[in-house]
Design goal:
14% strand; globular
């Protein structure tokens, strides 16, 4: 009797919409360490997916590059090595030219508003640019800055300097000003600076501490220099094999609301890092004068022109895409 009763209870606990659904197991791959705010936020997202699906979608989160290197995460989603992956499109220069608009210097002033703007804007273009995966959501981190072993005040100060850029567009900026790019993923960056392979790094503020980079740099430019575009991408075959009810659960969890829930803790973490750095002995957080900032903004104009040319080569209407982005930034009050 007890076994029968328990079986009836279990059956009653499964939402009717999912009663006939096969269990789907999803592997989510992140390349940041467990201490990174994205990890617990993604685990909460995963738990809610499981709950909303009546337990028919089981989600396991793998941080710290357990399933593959950071640079490979888009292809991992495409090829089914993982089912959902955390992608930095800028790790592969030229592959995602439209998304690169969000990586130009001096675009976003705020991480939370910027994420809402970017996510709304890029969902229109991802079906073309990321057509062999399903875009779940796109987001940015709170704007990052230049950190390093010497004080950089104007673009000419980067001449001859070795910089680890956060993404490909910042890498182009470094080259444009006479610097040398050092390619290293976030987990590899401290070692590059420690060994003298790199002199400077563009990085968000809180993550400087998370990855131990505060131990090997001293100077920090206090300006929202750049943000990096990130996406959560899902394997198309895995999504298409789901029932309609399960697909709805995934769609509901690839919403602007969930983009904010997953990324807001990281935005707050990065913003707090700036406050922490300002109070830290042995470090100098320095502002730019209005004239210096204006010099930077004028100097990076060719990067926008290069972006527009890359989009045109890929068959896109750069002027329309840019106008769409600017309108969305204005809508969310997210621009500079």
């Amino acid at each position: 009797m007890r076994k029968t009763f328990m079986a009836l209870l279990l059956a009653a606990s499964v939402t009717p919409a999912f009663a006939q659904d096969k269990t789907v197991n999803l592997k989510v791959s992140l390349w940041v360490p467990p201490a990174h705010p994205l990890v617990p936020a993604t685990q909460a997202w995963a738990a809610d997916i499981e709950k909303a699906s009546g337990g028919t979608i089981k989600v396991s989160v793998f941080p710290s590059e357990q399933l593959g290197k950071a640079f490979d995460h888009y292809d991992m989603a495409r090829d089914g090595i993982a089912d959902v992956t955390y992608v930095n499109p800028g790790y592969q220069p030229g592959r995602f030219p439209i998304a690169a608009a969000g990586q130009l210097p001096f675009v976003f002033s705020d991480g939370k508003k910027g994420t809402l703007a970017l996510n709304e804007w890029y969902h229109k273009y991802a079906p073309t640019e990321m057509k062999d995966t399903k875009l779940c959501f796109a987001f940015i981190h709170d704007p990052g800055a230049l950190h390093g072993k010497k004080k950089i005040l104007v673009p000419a100060d980067l001449n001859g300097v070795k910089v680890r850029p956060a993404q490909s567009t910042i890498g182009e900026m470094v080259k444009m000003f006479g610097g040398t790019n050092v390619q290293a993923s976030a987990p590899e960056s401290r070692d590059a600076l420690e060994r003298g392979v790199a002199d400077e790094i563009t990085f968000p503020w809180g993550s400087i501490f998370l990855f131990g980079i505060d131990k090997v740099v001293k100077y920090h430019m206090d300006v929202p220099l750049y943000s990096t575009v990130f996406t959560y991408n899902m394997n198309l075959a895995k999504y298409n094999a789901m029932s309609d009810a399960q697909k709805k659960v995934m769609d509901d969890h690839c919403s602007p609301e969930w983009a904010a829930k997953v990324t807001d803790p990281w935005t707050e973490f990065e913003a707090n890092g700036r406050v922490k750095m300002k109070a830290l002995a042995g470090h100098e957080v320095y502002p730019l004068t209005a004239e210096q900032l204006d010099q930077w903004k004028k100097a990076v104009k060719p990067l926008h022109d290069s972006w527009a040319e890359a989009v045109k080569k890929a068959g896109g209407d750069a002027a329309a895409i840019d106008a769409d982005l600017q309108a969305t930034l204005k809508k969310y009050e997210a621009g500079i």
